[in-house]
Amino acid sequence: MTTTDPSLDISGNDVRGFLLMHDQIRAVVPEAARHVRALRPGDRRAARALVRWWAVFSRALHHHHVAEDTELWPLVLATAPELAAEVRRLEAEHAPLDADLAAVTTALERIGTLAEPGFRPAAEELAAALSRLDTYLRRHLASEEELVLPVMRHRIGAADWTALEKALADQGHGRDTSVLLPMFLAYSQPDRVAFLRDRLPAPVLVLHDLVLGPRYRRLLKKLPAATR
Ligand SMILES: [Fe+2]
Ligand SMILES: [Fe+2]
């Protein structure tokens, strides 16, 4: 039996940890566009919260790209050399995506300082840029999942997969973890939330549930037209 969405196949190596970041991308980028459209000129508090929320996501996505380029692609290429051209294309897409992410951060910081009449066109332009980025990222993710997930699940040996999973999880996020952890638990598909919660040490889970989760929800409430 074939599954139409390759990210929903649960056979072979467990790739849910890898897919956590894909869930964030699919959720956060369109949500950022909605927040930008809802931002009002002069609302510095909302603009600052939006910059902080976006910057944490943006750095995490950059880490994801680096992890794919340095850890994942070499193993995929060694396992499935026939995918070389496609893997090179996916790798080449990361640099322009990272440039787009940084440009969004810069534009967000600038918009927070603008008043009318400059504010509205700048906000519209940024929201449109985020929508284009969303389309591009969705294509990148779909291509990645279609091409690479079958190799990750079924062709990479269990020992190599365990080492790769550890290397991918070890991409340090430093202080961003206090925002990223509740973000991941808030936006991921239920089976991936279960995966993450299963692997978190009990004290970290308690810290999330009592402190980081509520703090993250307060950050979301500061965003323009908070949707959660
Ligand atoms: Fe990628
Ligand atoms: Fe990816």
From TrEMBL:
Identification of the protein by name: Hemerythrin domain-containing protein
Taxonomy, superkingdom: Bacteria
Chain ranges of the Hemerythrin-like domain: 19-150
Pfam family, one: Hemerythrin
